Amino acid sequence: MAHPVPPARRPTSVPPQGPSAGRPRGPARAPAELPPVHAAVICVAAPCLAISPEHGQLTGRGLDGIYRSGRRLLSRCLLRVAGRDPVAVQGRSLGADRAGFTATVRTGAAQGPDPDVSVDRVRHADGTERITLRSHAPRPLRLPVEISLGTDLADLGAVAAGRAGPDLPAGVHAAGLRWSTQGAQAFTTADPPPDDALASLGLLRWELDLRPGEAVTIELRTAQERVSRTPVAQLAGPLSAARAEGDDPRTEALFRTGLDDLRALLLRDPAEPADAYAAAGVPWRCGLAPAESLWAARMALPLGTGLAAATLRTLARTQADGRGPDGGRIPGPLRAAGPGLPPGCTGTEATLAFPVVLAEARRWGMPEREVAALLPAAERCLAWLRDRTDGTGFLADPVPGPFRCETQAHAHRAALLGADLLEDCGRPGADEWREWADALRDRFHASFWTETPSGGGPAAAVHPDGRPLAHLTGASAHLLDTGLLGGGRLARGLLDRVRTEQLARLLGAPAMDSGWGLRSLGVKEAGHNPFGHRSGAVRVHESAVAVAGLAAAGFDKEAGGLLKGLLDAAEFFGHRLPEMYAAPQRTAGSAPLPHPAACRPAAVSAAAGIHVLVALAGIRPDAPAGTVALEPLGSAPLGALRLSGLQVAGAPFAVRVSRLGLGMVEEAADALQLGV
């Protein structure tokens, strides 16, 4: 029976601080259409968020506002100077947690068209805004300044659905205004205090005297009245202060922006505040999304194992206990899967990723005591995998329907890395899991690989009756994603060498490689839509997985082509890659197009920039054995590259790749030996 595909995005309307984040408070009905956010200037310091239009004036329309834990504390912040609206000239991100807006005002103090007052606004996600007015007039000015403030204290979900109420009445509170409703309150204070505050109009007023060249700053602070927790971005975080530099200056910008965004998206688990995980993305998924949080932690392992350990502990606390069909499973919501497929369960993805992330984190240097504490949860994940294997030998999703190609890839990887983990930790079952993985490879080749005169390719899915859903998707890149084993080795892939080579050709061909990254569905396939998030748009996660997998398999040309396309696309987005974007085939003068509903920043996209650059160096650590191997991409597609401030075996690690593709370790733990 066909199952309806749920909306691609459901805005969270609860405090996004724990495993339950993302569940709507009110009716479960999703909005028919999400408001576009591609042109918004978004800054985040989780759980704080500010969404601004490019001109910087918070109008109270759409998603405009300052939010904390999914609650809009301020929806309107309109500035007027000398009775005029400033003319916006620039709005841009200044970092993950702040944005800047510049405007001008012509007061009429001098003849001619030139503005004589500039206005610079720096808005922080934590609710702080600094408004600096500078006079360029030839004589002293007396400037009347007004700031109109308002809020509805609505949930983000209600705002996105168009169900936010009218502005609440304001009250004068100290040097500002205050709003309250049942269960919520907010206030804005100003420094210097306003000369006048009109609560009925939500208005603060000043009379400022400026001499020629003089500047005056008004600082606004919007917050909840009760004492709130410090955002994780302001606390000691689990990510190292790494950096990238090289011949291509864009590598530094991509790496730095990704690291800043990851830090800005970190949230603490209320059950254990010492544990941080990455929120999936803003504005729609401001809470824990198990699969995305795990993938981000995995891609960030070169920055230290702290984020992976905390994310694994957080998810282990949500794991289903006992036996039965759900025993050992990590819960997760359904997610649309593209044309011809019912929705997939992200809980399945997270359950299979759990032992993989734990096994690889151990290779990067997670302390053995932390591994031992998490090993029982990983064993329960493997037990769930064994119990959920269908009679056909393939892993069945909780939602009835075809067996998905990428799900079998996740299962195969979990079995191999899980076996390695069990063996290294002295636990039974390693040989059985390796045999299970070998059997899955044979079944996959027989059922999923469709032969054609051009060499064939993997089906997107196979129906329970054996019929393949024979279209090529970006999700097939997961077939190339193997994982780290002991001795700096890579796990054996689900495909043999001949089929891996054919898949590399398919992913590197124009039907899949848009020139800006990997399409989620081939351009020649039925239902292709360049804006479809599973039917043609470029999903950064899949592109990064493809780059790393192709590089590890030795397909330098295809890996380098996708990598350069991803890096070129990042330039159009200020090096802050969204989770997806539209990419018609690249031609002279073309550009990637923003998807109006894409999260940006998004945790996996932020980590993906780090992941692909580390993949160029081919770092293969085995901290328990005290070794690290380097297998850099021989073609050096970005020229010379240096990565510093990484973490291997709990110590700083730096590596340099020359223009000839030769790798050299510049800094490492004293006990770490270079392996082969």
Q: What does this entry look like structurally?
A:
Helix content is 26%, strand content 25%. The longest helix has 21 residues, at 368-388. With 676 residues, it is of the alpha+beta class. Residues 1-31 and 226-236 have low confidence and may be disordered. The chain is elongated, with a radius of gyration of 26 Å. It contains 12 helices and 36 strands. It has 2 domains: 48-228, Beta-galactosidase, Chain A, domain 5 (Distorted Sandwich); 233-674, Glycosyltransferase, CATH 1.50.10.10. The strands form 10 sheets. The protein has an 8-stranded antiparallel beta sheet. The protein starts with 40 loop residues before the first strand and ends with a strand.
Please specify the SSE layout and strand pairing.
Layout: E1 41-45, E2 48-52, E3 58-59, E4 65-68, E5 71-74, E6 76-81, E7 87-95, E8 98-105, E9 117-124, E10 128-135, E11 141-150, H1 156-160, E12 171-173, E13 176-181, E14 184-191, E15 196-198, E16 203-210, E17 215-223, E18 243-246, H2 250-264, E19 266-269, E20 272-278, H3 290-299, H4 306-316, E21 334-335, E22 344-345, H5 346-364, H6 368-388, E23 403-404, H7 405-424, H8 430-447, E24 449-450, E25 457-458, E26 461-462, E27 468-469, H9 497-508, E28 538-539, H10 540-553, H11 556-572, E29 580-582, E30 593-594, H12 603-617, E31 619-622, E32 627-630, E33 641-648, E34 651-657, E35 663-667, E36 673-674
Helix pairs in contact: 2-12, 3-4, 3-5, 3-12, 4-6, 5-6, 5-7, 6-7, 7-8, 9-11, 10-11, 10-12
